[in-house]
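General statements about sequence and structure are easier to judge against a single worked case. No coordinates are needed to read the tokens, only the vocabulary itself. The sequence in question and its structure tokens are set out directly beneath this paragraph.
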Amino acid sequence: METTVKPTVPAVAPLSLKDLVLRILEREPHRAFTVEDLLTLLKLQSPKDPQKQAQAVEQVTTHLRSLIEVGQITEVAPGLFKCRLFFELEKSIEHAFIGGMGNNRYRFKSPIFRLNIGVLSVYFIHDSKKKEWFLTVRDTTIGKDYCLARRLRDGQYLLGNRPIAAGDENYVQIAGRYIEKEHLALTVSGDEIAIEDHNTANGTRIDLLTKEGLARYQQAAWAFLKATETQHQKDPVKRGRYVLEQLLHQHQNFETTFFGAVVDSLLMAG
């Protein structure tokens, strides 16, 4: 009788603490975690042993800082950490959703970003010469685009749907459906941005150009400006056709609206 030899199954190496931390963050990419949250989920809490508790906090914090350095997670507020989320292979645009899910804060650094609130998309473009932010609003449901007359400088602002009242110097009205009367708070310091959603039912989606994404889009935008006559550089049809040609002939994928925002930023810079 022949003896059946069972195949050897290679042992699976246990995940390191750093890998376990990342796995927790990746499992809920829109949620922000404190170190204490992670300690609880990792079953590392030691309230009866202060020394052991402090060592666990130090270990997890060290791994979080390491993951930030390699660009896998971000610190959205002091002591709050979440996974970075991208929807394209190039990782040019980073996405975040706040409000409506518990986590209502996010901070980042980018000279061009977009807030999706209600049915509107609000593009923020930093004018480095004047040190202020230029805002454009797009309502795709009715095909309407417009610019806000007001530009924003460093400071704290409140954005919402209610009419502007007397003394509302730091209030910016964004009129549209599914936008709360006081939807979110925005803090601006150069190109450093902090956003706090006011626990709205529909939340706020944030899309921003990463550092690498900005360089990639700027290179394409410069090429477009060089190849396009001055009177046609602001034409959205010309911009859209250029983006389509990049996709068809160069296999380079650019989001048309972000591409247009980068072109506008270069034109403002002169």
The longest strand covers residues 120-127. The longest helix spans residues 50-69. The chain has a mean pLDDT of 90. Residues 35 and 144 are 44 Å apart (CA to CA).
